[in-house]
Amino acid sequence: MKHLQRGLLWLVLLCCASVMQARDFVHPGGLHTRADLERMKQMVKQGEHPWIDAWEVLQKDPQAQSDFKPGPLANMGVSRQKASIDAHAAYLNAIRWYISGDEAYARCAINICNAWSAAVNQVPRARQDQGLLGIPIGDFAMAAEVLRVCDLWKPADFERFKNMMTEYLYPVCHDFLLHHSGGNMDYWWANWDAANILAVVAIGVLCDNEEIYNEGVNYYKYGPGSGSICNAVPILHRMDDGTVLGQWQESGRDQAHAQLGVGFLGNVCQIAWNQGDDLFAFADNRLLAGAEYVARHNQLRGVPFTFYNNSHNMRNAWPATNALGSVGERPVWELIYNHYEVLKGIPAPYSRRMAEVLRPEHGSKDHFGYGTLTFTLKPSAFPPLDLPAVPKGLVAEASVGKVFVSWEPSEGFRANGYVLQRSESGKNQFKDIAVYREYLLNNYTDRDVENGVSYDYRVAAVNQRGQSGFSAVAQAVPTACADLPEGWSCTLTGGLRNTDSCFAQGGFASCAKNTFVLRGKSSRQAKDGDVLPFIYRKVSGNFTLIARLQEREGPVNEMGLMARAGLEAASDAVTLTLGGRFTRMWGWNRSAGRFHNVPGNVYTWLPSYYKLVRVDDVFYAYESADGETWFFVHAERMQMPAEIYVGLTASFGGKEHTGVAGFDHVLLR
Asked: 528: pLDDT confidence band, cut at 50, 70 and 90?
């Protein structure tokens, strides 16, 4: 209902946009005004920090070189990635021209824009990801808005470029925001909408088209899709200290896309701000609440999370760990920090810290970046960042053929990466085994080890100022698999024997709170029966089985927990499995002819905890990110004998390669 109401409101605003009072657009007025460009130029000329630091990085960017050669396409949909590369090159060369005065960069940027406007002769269509064409379209519009102040760009060529935008490219973005490729509006992730909102707003400014501009502004405020600001930040969390964190719509999906959306909508607000419209402040600074949430989570400080779902049953139960801490991929934070905290004086502590640990910002494939150069407002806002603190709480946990190493984030959260070292115990010959730069993850799996050998580990934090001292040493001895413990067995369901093309092999080690390793090849589960590798134990009556799904190698289709009435292929069974990123509870009631599944968290990433519980004739499934807080998936009623078979399973594809599914923290009671 909320999406429908917002959709109707947006359509009314869209219809009314063309009758509003005409506006005089500010030019240049995309991401940067003339005053912004002059500030960059003067600060670089004077050698002021941090502008000069970012300028030096920009000059090394391969896409910022005056000899860059474009590769235009008649149909931009053939490769949106290639179009984005060329658009970034046009923007970066335009910035280099304005700051340096060297016309070679202006001619390069003009050549890129002219080549594309001469080539594009159709509304682009993509084989897939049609909505993501908004990314290069917006990039080109923002680049051209900087370049329009260059006298070397002939008026006729500029007009042809604007015609390309309105005749061929704008219809793609408009159609997506209106129809969402025929799908449900709330199915598409926030960054899809955000990319197209950004493109529409940028095109409106570039082409002095108030109707197009208003369409984008109104969609940001009231649009029915996931990218309008109150849908992109659907839930507000009020913290004990009075701050407000806005749960981002993609936070349960992965962190790369959550940061992507922050960057796109930040650009929307910046363009509107330069035209006199304060979208930054809309809905009580909703964008800031969302940005602070994403920034805090990616600094590994912990965030609250409210269950999120949509019409496609995404069922996000916790903030995703996929790409967690990968801050270097998304240089989007200087814009957020400078506007809210530096310009307006509104605290943005987590966005500020993101800007600090990334400074000076570089470029990236989906964002122009270089915000330290382009959005820094005054040098006094940027005191030098102290050295990071020595990491504490280092733990090395032995496993089968590997060691799991983890540590607490460096106190003060001033690190932008870590250096992990290893030595054979007692030798004090430490060498780097993992170096994280612009990556805040605080764990590592060391696979380059020998079973039975004792290893020492230590970790240091790094940032632009240098490296901290090393932590205290943690020690671990990886181990090999042994036979399954008493009472446990491994088999192929269906009574098949191991062959070269289809087999099951189970191993066990007591490390990592009971580790089981299941190797297999060529298995299946179907309505008429299954052939599955199965590590099991006979259980009588009610039970609880818990396991952490730790790792999968090779052709592992699904892995998880299973309880079944018998070992025959056609036995009734219930399973809780992870296939790809999908958690599902399956009911295989073959005797009754019923087969179905119910999804759990659709974006589940390893490692993850599963729990299967029997209470009489009802089987309950739960999942957890940490093994402490559990989320209910489904309850399946199925009559089974008192004594059944309970354990760990996986399905493997292909007859040529062996797959390996690893489980630990296994508890059956």
From this structure: confident
